[in-house]
Amino acid sequence: MQKLLIVGCGDVAWRALPRLVRRYRVYALLRDADEHARWRAAGAVPLAGDLDDRAGLGRCGGLADAVLHLAPPPDRGDRDTRTRHLLAALGRGKSLPQRLIYISTSGIYGDCAGAVVDETRAPHPATARALRRLDAERTLRAFGRATGVAVAILRAPGIYAADRLPLERLAKGTPALADADDVFTNHIHADDLAAACCAALVRARPNRAYNACDDSHWKMGEYFDRVADAFALPRPPRLTRAEAARQLSPLQLSFMRESRRLSNRRLREELRLALAYPTVADGIAAAREEHERKSACSS
Questions:
Q1: Which residue of 24, 33, 208, 282 shows the fewest CB atoms closer than 10 Å?
Q2: At a CB cut-off of 8 Å and minimum separation 6, what does 42 contact?
Q3: Which fold has domain 2-162+186-216+260-278?
Q4: Which residues, at least 6 apart from 239, have a Cβ–Cβ distance to it below 8 Å?
Q5: Is 70 helix (H, G, I), strand (E, B) or coil?
Q6: Does the pLDDT of residue 164 top 70, yes or no?
Q7: For strand 24-30 and strand 99-105, is the pairing parallel, antiparallel, or unpaired?
Q8: What percent of the chain lies above the pLDDT cut of 90?
Q9: C-alpha neighbours within 13 Å on the C-beta side of residue 133
């Protein structure tokens, strides 16, 4: 049985774990010691380590045949030092992994004015967090070319699930853009992103990027409206872009400056991924059903 190292053991990695333990001996790099028992009970081997502490990553080298890298970059600067620390640790081992899959962001494309975007489009990141992701992509690709490790990148847009919906935002009445000023946004259900990770470990081509998104091409306001309707919440008030600039935070505005419609052809054809939630409407409906089941059980 091959060995797999998971780096970045958050929600998506946890969702992928049941599939992964059937195929690999899974090692989970964890910086929180309190998480060890949970991951061990689920079939993984906990490995203590922190990507911000390069000296503490020695056990990663030569350990695994494949690496699933889901850890985000640091929250400052324009370089992903965490990815650099990981690659340095992998390079100190007696052997290198054969494959490395990295979860990046579709934010590396920047604003595309609503155009349909495939993986050949040149990156044009407009935010610091997207710049750090692009730095990680380039660092990993250079590592792959230099070593022969088959590196592949999944570029994920907005990740959602039943427990990852903007219900709090809607309850607060946070505005959205008026339709004339609104932007196209893209989504992937967390379960489908987990499935994409598993598929990429088997089928991704070396040095290849994949848009890891569903089939929906909704504007951001429509997404908020659909979630609000499903959960009996008020639809958000709409603002012009000029009004939003005066009322919303810089972080909120940053998500309203980029408009693109991602193509997932490679995901479907090369990774042969059948999405459990092909559209956001499917995912919202499933989330509503889950909410109703939980409400019925608690009543």
A1: 33
A2: 14, 17, 18, 21
A3: Rossmann fold (3.40.50)
A4: 175, 176, 177, 178, 247, 248
A5: coil
A6: yes
A7: unpaired
A8: 92
A9: 26
Helices (H), the chain: 11-20, 36-41, 81-91, 128-147, 167-172, 190-203, 220-230, 241-247, 250-254, 265-269, 280-298
Q: Quick one: pLDDT at residue 299? A: 66
**Amino acid identity of 71?**
A
Neighbours of 242 (CB within 10 A): 9
Q: Which amino acid is at 219?
A: K
Determine contact, residues 274/214, Cβ cutoff 8 Å.
no
Which residue do the tokens 């091409």 mark? Answer: 217
Token readout for 223 is: 């997404």
pLDDT tens for 95-153 read: 999 999 999 999 999 999 999 999 999 999 999 999 999 999 999 999 999 999 999 99
Query: Quick one: tokens of 156?
Result: 């994920």
Question: Structure tokens of 97?
Answer: 């992994």
193-233 pLDDT, tens per residue?
999 999 999 999 999 999 999 999 999 999 999 999 999 99
Domain boundaries along the sequence of the chain: 2-162+186-216+260-278
pLDDT at 173 over 90: yes
Selection from 226, 215, 217 nearest residue 176 by Cα: 226
